[in-house]
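Sequence, please.
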């Protein structure tokens, strides 16, 4: 099928489409707000520091999204998540399996505190 990052991009794309159709009644195209959110999400997924080794974003210690965008993605996931089971069951299953992986933390081994705040460092 797809690589893990490719699956994650497809999953968020379908979730945003479900959300936009249900909340904004757009049918063929995404509304400008949802289109911008999708572009932002794809950019953040592609630049994820943990790449193929990470679990789902909800369990990740490195938050790539700005706080406002993170809240929008949460709204999308709350709405679209239950609907994904029926519309895209295979992607939903992969997403659930990715969330069960506990081993990704080994790559994020220690925290260093400095003047700017908390930074994650990897081995």
């Amino acid at each position: 099928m797809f690589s893990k990052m490719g699956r994650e991009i497809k999953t968020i794309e379908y979730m945003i489409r479900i959300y936009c159709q249900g909340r904004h009644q757009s049918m063929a195209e995404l509304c400008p707000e949802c289109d911008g959110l999708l572009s932002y999400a794809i950019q953040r997924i592609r630049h994820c520091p943990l790449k193929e080794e990470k679990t789902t974003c909800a369990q990740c210690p490195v938050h790539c999204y700005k706080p406002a965008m993170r809240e929008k993605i949460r709204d999308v996931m709350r709405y679209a998540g239950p609907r994904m089971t029926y519309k895209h069951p295979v992607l939903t299953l992969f997403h659930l399996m990715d969330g069960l992986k506990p081993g990704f933390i080994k790559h994020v081994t220690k925290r260093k505190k400095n003047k700017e705040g908390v930074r994650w460092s990897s081995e």
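The mean pLDDT is 76.
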